[in-house]
From TrEMBL:
Name by which UniProt lists this protein: DDE Tnp4 domain-containing protein
Ranges where the DDE Tnp4 domain occurs: 46-206
Family: Belongs to the HARBI1 family.
Localization per Swiss-Prot or TrEMBL: Nucleus
A single GO cellular-component term on record: nucleus
UniProt KW keywords: Hydrolase, Metal-binding, Nuclease, Nucleus
Pfam families listed in its UniProt record: DDE_Tnp_4
Native source organism of the sequence: Rhamnusium bicolor
GO MF term set: hydrolase activity; metal ion binding; nuclease activity
Domain of life of the source: Eukaryota
Cofactor(s) needed: a divalent metal cation
Length: 234
């Protein structure tokens, strides 16, 4: 099993899970969001999901006190994910403990640096969609939670939330297939094998989506099953 996971994580992950900067591939992603949600120039939706783990032992070299204890009161890895309108994962980062805020993970992301660099080089028509937990950037659009009803800001927020909801659906579809990622199926693996398992899940899910082997109808109950969405998660 270990050998298979290593092949999946080290050799297939870079092939099946990648955030493209090629214009033709980004245009295809933009077309998907435009056709489904009438939201132009979107190259992905971003969010985090918590995957439960047992409390790391004191002698674990990756143990940093209560760093893995999240704000919901259980130990977890806070996994940062980007997906397209077809629920294909474009990027995943499972390196950070549960207490790390979504925006902090994003600030250290190589994809964030890539988006900033592309903007500085003149690409002003490509952006990601995030909730209000992220800082608004010229390459990352977020909702306006206090927009007045009927205002342009409210209409924009409604459209953004509908388009960004693909990431919630992605989490539901992913956890429907891989129950090892559910909150009540707490991961007992240590850091190294856990990372291999997570990366293999992303690869297999993209392969299934590419072959239309996904049951979307039954995934709703799994959508961010650990998450009571708060107001700043609009």
């Amino acid at each position: 099993m270990k050998e298979v996971l290593q092949i999946m994580a080290h050799h297939l992950f870079p092939v099946y899970v990648k955030f493209t900067t090629r214009v033709n591939e980004q245009n295809e992603i933009k077309r998907g969001f435009l056709q489904q949600f009438q939201f132009p120039n979107v190259v992905g939706a971003i969010d985090c999901t918590h995957i439960a783990i047992v409390a790391p032992p004191e002698n674990d070299p990756h143990h940093l006190g209560d760093a893995y204890l999240n704000r919901k009161g259980f130990y977890s890895i806070n996994v940062h994910v980007i997906c397209d309108s077809d629920l294909k994962i474009l990027g995943a980062n499972a390196r950070y403990p549960g207490s790390t805020h979504d925006s902090a993970i994003w600030s250290m992301s190589s994809i964030n640096r890539c988006m900033r660099r592309n903007f500085e080089r003149g690409d002003h028509t490509s952006w990601l969609l995030g909730d209000s937990g992220y800082a608004l950037k010229l390459w990352l659009l977020t909702a306006i939670p206090d927009a007045l009803d009927g205002s342009p800001g409210a209409r924009y927020t409604l459209m953004l939330c509908r388009a960004r909801n693909v990431i919630e659906r992605y989490f539901g579809v992913l956890k429907q297939r891989f129950h090892c990622l559910l909150k009540h199926r707490v991961s007992h693996y240590n850091h190294a094998p856990r990372a291999l398992i997570f990366n293999s899940c992303w690869v297999l899910q993209n392969i299934c989506i590419g072959r239309n082997l996904v049951n979307y109808e039954d995934a709703e109950e799994f959508e961010n099953e650990e998450d009571d969405q708060e107001m700043n998660d609009i």
